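Researcher: Let's try something more involved. This one mixes different molecule types, so please make sure each is placed in the same coordinate frame as the others.
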Amino acid sequence: MSDALLRRWLRRAPAYGVLALCAAVLLFPLYVTFANSLHPIAEFLQDPPPSLFPSHPQWGNYFAGGDEQGGSGGPGVTRYLFNSVVVAGIITIGQLVTSTLAAYAFAFLRFPGRGVLFALFLATMMVPLEVAVIPNFQTIQWLHWTDSYQGLVAPFLATGFGTFLLRQYFLTIPSELKDAAEMDGYGEYRFLLHVAVPLAGGALATLAVFAFLQAWNQYLWPLLVTNDPDLRTVQIGIGAETQEPFRINIAFANTIIAFLPMVLLVIAFQRSLVRGLFGGSVKG
Amino acid sequence: MSAPAAARRFALPRGARQLLTALPFLAPSIVLFGAFVFYPLVKSVYLGFYIENPFRTRQIYVGFDQYRDVLASSEFVSSLLVTVTFTLYTVVPALVIATFLAVLANQKLPGVVVFRTIFASPLAASVALTAVFWLVLLHPTIGILNEWIETLGLPRVDWLNDGGWAVTEHSGVSKLTSWISDPNWALLSVSMATVWMNVGLFTIILLAGLQTIPDELYESARVDGAGRWAQFWHVTLPMLSPTLFFASVVGVIFAFQAFGQIDIMTGGGPVDATNVVIYSIYQEAFQNFRYGAASVQAVALFVIMLGLTLLQFRLVRGRIFYR
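Model: All components are placed in one shared frame. Result:
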């Protein structure tokens, strides 16, 4: 019996070997960054590069905070993470609200021009931010919203993708339900809040994860509309820190710090993410 | 229903009443799209008609001349070439690696979920973090990769500062062999980082695709005497092709939008070796303050991406058939 078990594991061994090797290669850049984050800065200035196995790990690099010497180090990774959470959070909530409302109108209400308007909403998916970036920057300047949270979030509060996704889910709600609710004296808003939204929970979660990740990963827009180090998102903050050779070990530590919460998020919401990726494409 | 609302019901024609009901639901999105999507699109086209002085105190109308001049300029052609090369360097390897990883992680083994998660983990890295992870490997003084290359007795590579063919030869198309004899290491560096990032995403997409392939197909293939390799070529790959196609279009769109990793790793350089179209728009608009010329490139990019997105829509509308 145990002989058979042993043989089965032996047969599996090569498969696990290949899996482990691939995992090691894929994780290697992460590991090197981690190893480098534990070295004192002096080791980066010598000729042989810092070893992959720090002999005296400097965990203090993870608690370095901002640049107290008043250099260009900025306010530190905690502040950057806070900014990113605020910005991505507002964008996520904004997208959920605007697209739920719009999707409701497209799914449940009849009005002239509905088809054309929906097509226009879909068309917004074809205009990437990069193309609209110059006029949008001018608009934000005109509103005096540079170096502000408003400026960071404003262009991203509505979403064609989200409207489409939620409308698809709303359309699966049988019209009898709507009729019955109307009979019970439910107005549009009450039906939306108490019937449609709870039923579309899964789709809302998918949209939320998607919106949050996209907002979190933004780079070009925050780079343009913020100069104040206190308003840097984590991407811009980390990017700026890599330009400082004398704090590079701390930049590496901060990179690891910024990476960990997102790993947890992605692991926790992997399923929703996949659904979102295909959501814009799969009908029904 | 309150009395004034009831009164309005009789006063207005049905269409107007319906619009009034729908408007509060649609207004937030319409205002935002108008301000940040449709207006900028029109404005970009308009800006392309004007040339301005560096402080934008004066604008001169030049009509389509600027479109012609910018789009025909060697700088634009070169940035387009860099973009297409970057797309090629990032999409194809990432698809091959991700297919391999997805097939590996799709085996029925205890604990394989752990590997699925590890293979997907680059998805959690933003462009900025990815750039740092790869800077560490490729950095001129602390990069570990060059140490290994030296140990193997090969010459060091000046990863981030060697633009190869893109620098030595401005019209890179004329001599495609120089892509191999004089590699654009800077572009390859940025591409490697991007491949790493894409592998996480593609693996997840492809795993989802693999899981839709029915087991019976493999069973009947085995009955027909197909080995693992034959099963891969005759069952997995054909069944996976729609997903592969989908992933590749996503990858191409990502490649045309790539900015952050280039900004952090190479800043578009050396010279213009990694100056993709987006980066060139950024430099033209926000470093040289030539909004007009930058807008022309933005409009051109829009047209290209519109084509790609339409292609994606067509594909995912279910027009791809299993073989």
